[in-house]
Prior knowledge:
This protein is an all-alpha fold. It has three helices and no strands.
Amino acid sequence: MTREGHTIVSPKERMTQGIALAVLLVLGGLAIAGPSGLLAWGENLRLLDQRRATIATLSHERDELKVQVNALNPSNADPDLVGELLRKDLNVVHPDEVVILLDKPAD
């Protein structure tokens, strides 16, 4: 120790302290601006909300498809749905039906 109360530090100790300080600064920077840091939280919350909305939409579509699949069960098919799908997909009509063709609206 010197008279002023300072200790004499060797170059090896200074380098060790410098490296430790640099590591702490890098870790602090990553904690703030890293991929899982404070600044990324807002983006992650926004993406989470978007994905929850997408999941809700897809769940609703899945439920509608389940109802349609159950209505097309071969042992218990819904005749109205079967008739609708035949008319729409295969262009099938009953002999007593009249087909009226409409012009497509101009875009």
